[in-house]
Specification:
CATH topology: Tetracycline Repressor, domain 2
CATH class: Mainly Alpha
Largest sheet: none
Order of helices and strands: HHHHHHHHHH
Number of domains: 1
Structural class: mainly alpha
Length: 220
């Protein structure tokens, strides 16, 4: 009885080809972001990511040697492009803080609508007792970009274009509170008769109104 040897024997656990390998890699990154946002970076193992993907830990290790390597790739490929899209507003509108901050609020809402993990991950890691997320961000990018944003705010205050009582380090926390927090909760409000009407457009409009007018009545 002859044996057909015309087809190469596939090694167990390895992807079938370049296309399948790329698809699996992207799927693992998607699942990692989902689990990081839900449970936190510190409490999500590479094995847990593999289980969620329906594969063995060994196969996940084929794509990422460690959770830290996976997280560094997530920073480069997913987190920083989303963050850069928001930060570039400062370069586009260096002399107009009202325009810049309003656009940042709108982009935060749009980013959270497009990437549901973004807000949940950022808020969770911002208040987490574990510094894994912050350490990775600082290790790869330092604090220069954040310091530059704070300096922009101080410059606007010195130029009389922005309220001098605003604390630069809290301004961005306030922006997240006005945009990212309600966007993370909006899906849970669908069954609430008092909040079911709230959507991304309303959140963006409310955030811009709070930024530009505060609680003062609008002009008639």
């Amino acid at each position: 009885m002859s044996t057909d040897t015309s087809k190469p024997v596939r090694r167990p656990g390895r992807p079938a080809g370049p296309a399948a390998s790329k698809d699996q890699r992207e799927r693992l990154l998607d699942i990692a972001l989902e689990l990081f946002a839900r449970h936190g970076v510190a409490d999500t193992t590479l094995s847990a990511i593999a289980r969620k993907a329906g594969m063995t830990p060994a196969m996940a290790h084929y794509y990422f040697k460690t959770r830290e390597q996976l997280f560094d790739l997530l920073i480069d490929e997913r987190i920083m492009p989303a963050r850069a899209n928001i930060e570039e507003v400062f370069q586009a509108h260096p002399g107009d803080p009202i325009k810049a901050l309003s656009l940042i609020a709108e982009r935060l809402v749009a980013t959270n609508a497009r990437l549901p993990w973004f807000g949940a991950l950022w808020i969770r890691e911002m208040i987490s007792d574990n510094d894994i997320f912050k350490q990775h961000m600082r290790k790869r990018f330092g604090v220069e970009r954040q310091a530059a944003m704070f300096e922009n705010v101080r410059r606007w205050q010195k130029e009389g274009k922005l309220n001098p009582d605003i604390e630069p380090a809290l301004l961005f926390v306030s922006l997240l509170g006005l945009t990212t927090l309600p966007m993370a909760a909006v899906r849970r409000w669908k069954g609430d008769p008092l909040s079911a009407h709230i959507d991304a457009q309303i959140i963006a409009r409310h955030a811009v109104a709070m930024l530009t007018q505060g609680i003062s009545p609008g002009q008639g």
